[in-house]
Amino acid sequence: MRFIFTRQSFLQFGLISGLIGSLLLSKLALNLDQASAQDASPQLEQISHSTYFKLLLHYKKNIFGFERSEADGADFFIDPRGKYDPEAELRADIAAFNKPQAKSIGPLHQHPQCAFPERFRFIKEQFKEQLLDASFIEVPCPDFARWKSQFKPKSITLVYAAPYLGSPASMFGHSFLRIDTSKQALLDYGISFEAVTGPDPGVAYTLKGLTGFYPGIFSQMPYYLKVNTYINVDSRDLWEYELNLSESQIDHMLNHIWEMGTTYFNYYFFNKNCSYHLLSLIEVANPKLELRSQFGPMVIPIDSIRAITKYPEAIRSVQMRPSLLKTLKTNLKKMPAENLERFYELKQNIFRRTSAASTTLRTTEAAEVLDALLDWQKYESLNHAKTLADSSETISQQLLLARAKISSSPSQQNDPTSQEESSRTPLPPEQAHKTSQVTLGLGYDRSQTTMNFGFRPAIHDLLDPDDGYIAFSSLIIAQSDFSYLSNEQKLRLDQFKFAEVININPLTRLRKDWSWQIGARLFHPDDLNCSACVLSQVSAGIGLSLGSLQERVIFYSFLKGYGEYSDALFKDYHQSTRAAPVFEVGVLSQLSQRLKAWVSSEKLLYFPEIPNESFYHFKLALAYSNKEFELRLSSEEILKADSQALKALVSLGYFF
User: Fold this and answer.
1) Which of 92, 258, 288, 371 has its CA 20 to 30 A from that of 312?
2) Burial class (CB in 10 A: 0-12, 13-18, 19+), 135
């Protein structure tokens, strides 16, 4: 048999041979790739479940023991399963980093290498480029490079702003980070985690903040703006904790802060809040710090400070910036009586008759008087207008001109350290009493003894130690108190406070502020003849208070209103609601560093009226406490025209 090869048959043979060869080579390559993937699989699994990779993905176990990412923005994950499957996300990350034309990520439409610079750095470091394609290139990231170039960070500082009762979002305090770039901290940048709320009214704002309906994002702001808001406008002290981080740790944190721009987190006021998510950034910088795992259902900013100070090696230094108002009060306390009277005289004359400022000032005015007047002018302008632009230029210029003519050295008002040397050094937040409390007590209720139990998740009441909190204030969330009645042998709910806020502001020559309170609770009414009934109550009040003995004793009065609801009211009122105006007078006294006393008297007149319904409610309490324990003695008496109810209780509380 003869084979005759023509040109056409030769080409056909070549094509068939090439096709067979290609198929064989493809099969071989596929086998090699599968073998390579099988070899890499254990490493992929190990790294995807490593602590650091899960920190970058913000993984956390829920109450059922399942791990998932707390990030809620879809762009934070390249694989759709990335929120729940770290290995799937790692594989998708590697594949995306290898594609020069990969899908754009986030609002800036970045290449994955640019959107996730810390994730990219970590993967390269772990795999030493063995899983990257031969054609792999690092893409330019101009937006990220431009953002990062504004920092030449020397350190990172965790900043704690003291509570501020003037805003629901600030009542528990606030924390944020400062990127320390320059020698002047005011020129640095602050990094905050904040809820994007919009113009919602009070009730809607509260409900959404409690249930995670607001997205929380990381934002950047010049530090001097934050200082102006917290120290000058809100009169809140700032505590600055410089973190002990290396240069590479700071770099890793900055990379991860940039990554946060691709996502958001559902904001929950009591736990997944400003402080909680800042702790995750610190954990990325130093994975040895286990911070978020220290918390349960509540994360209060002061507790986040306490969490990191459990690691003494994590803190390099601590500094306090007193509020403008505290600085002014401190300087006034140091002032001789003659200069103090001159300050109040000028304050009265100048700030009520601006045009008379130039004729009121003397050429021999004391420097400390002018410094105090400048502080007061700044405080007044900011608190009345909430902006520097609305301050009185006339007053400011004339005071500054008068101050410039005095050759004496400036006062100590610009030196936070020297300001506090003249008064008692305030206790750092982490050394204040802890925010939760359980109590156990033995009591007397009318004709029977009781065993009493109480639990308060947060945070502080009028008789607790004031160090680290707002003096003469109460901020309570979800407090419950129970009594076991010995004669009736049953457990009774005495009260459940959904919320209570009391702010007692003593009137002084410097400031004239209203005192106020608001609250909502369920409680057992002592004025009704029912053994275990429960009423719901809302209350609000406004009042005045006076301080004496350097504000160690406070006299106050409130005009309040109660609104109550319960079916138990049918017996006396033939309806389920009642209301009452209430007039309360009381005295709060700080008898010593650890001992407080409280006496109050209320007159209530409920309507619709029934005979003998007007009655008096007297309270007396003593509390001796330290940072861990509190011993409290209290008694209450209700006097009606035809009856009397007396209660007494001794209890031991433990702060935790």
Assistant:
1) 258
2) exposed
Check pLDDT > 60 for residue 389.
no
Backbone angles phi, psi at 66, to 5 degrees: -95, 140
Instruction: Identify which of 90, 113, 85 has the alpha carbon closest to the alpha carbon of residue 101.
Output: 113
Alpha-carbon gap, residue 444 to 600, rounded angstroms: 20
Cβ atoms of 561 and 543 within 8 Å: the answer is no
Tell me the CA end-to-end span of the chain in Å, nearest whole number.
100
How many CB atoms are closer than 10 A to CB 600?
A: 18
Q: Where are the domains of the chain?
A: 1-38, 49-138, 150-321, 324-421, 433-655
Please report, to the nearest 10 degrees, the dihedral formed by the alpha carbons of residues 331, 334, 337, 343 taken in order.
-10
Task: Tell me the C-alpha distance between 359 and 349, whole Å.
Answer: 10
Cβ atoms within 10 Å of 238's Cβ, excluding its own: 22
What is the rounded distance in angstroms from the CA atom of residue 296 to the CA atom of residue 515? 33
Residue 110's DSSP bridge partners are 105
Integer Cα distance of 259 and 356 in angstroms: 57
- Name the pairing type of β-strands 535-548 and 506-507: parallel
Element holding 37 (H helix, E strand): helix 7-48
CA distance 606 to 598: 25
Q: Which strand (E) or helix (H) includes residue 368?
A: helix 367-385
- CA pseudo-torsion sign 579, 502, 635, 567: positive
Strand partners, 160: 175, 239
E strand residue ranges, 468-594: 473-485, 490-503, 506-507, 515-523, 535-548, 553-565, 577-590
As a residue count, the chain comes to 656
Token code pair at residue 504? 């007692």
| Residue owning tokens 């003894």 | 449
Q: Supply 176's token pair.
A: 């944020």
Task: Indicate the residue type of 586.
Answer: G
**Distance from CA of residue 369 to its chain's centroid?**
36
* Residue 215: other Cβ atoms inside 10 A: 16
**Cα–Cα distance measured from residue 421 to residue 309, given in angstroms and rounded to the nearest whole number:** 24
DSSP states of 239-271: EEEEE---HHHHHHHHHHHHHGGG--EEE-TTS
Distance of CA 572 to the CA centre of its chain: 45
Which whole-number Å values give the CA distances from 257 to 122, 284, 393, 593, in the listed order?
A: 15, 10, 40, 43
pLDDT digits (tens, 9 = 90+) for 581-626: 999 999 999 999 899 999 999 999 988 877 656 789 999 999 999 9
573 with 601: CB under 8 angstroms?
no
Cα dihedral 250, 254, 259, 260 in deg (nearest 10) = 100
Lowest mean pLDDT among 27-31, 77-81, 389-393, 516-520: 27-31
pTM score > 0.90 for this model? Answer: no
DSSP-assigned letters across all residues of 490-501: EEEEEEEEEEEE
Please say whether the beta carbons of 596 and 463 come within 8 A. yes
Fold for the domain defined by 433-655: Porin (2.40.160)
Query: Residue 569 to residues 8, 41, 195, 572, 588: CA-CA distances in angstroms?
Result: 107, 70, 42, 6, 33
In terms of Cβ atoms closer than 10 Å to its own Cβ (0-12, 13-18, 19+), residue 230 is: buried
What is the greatest pairwise CA distance in the chain?
133
- What pLDDT is recorded for position 21? 45
Average pLDDT over residues 544-555: 86
Helix (H, G, I), strand (E, B) or coil at 206: helix
Phi and psi for 466 in degrees, rounded to 5? -85, -20
How does residue 465 score in pLDDT terms, banded at 50, 70 and 90? very high
Alpha-carbon distance of 439 to 453, in angstroms, equals 6
- What are the E-state strand segments in 282-350? 315-321
Count of C-beta atoms within a 10 Å radius of residue 375: 20
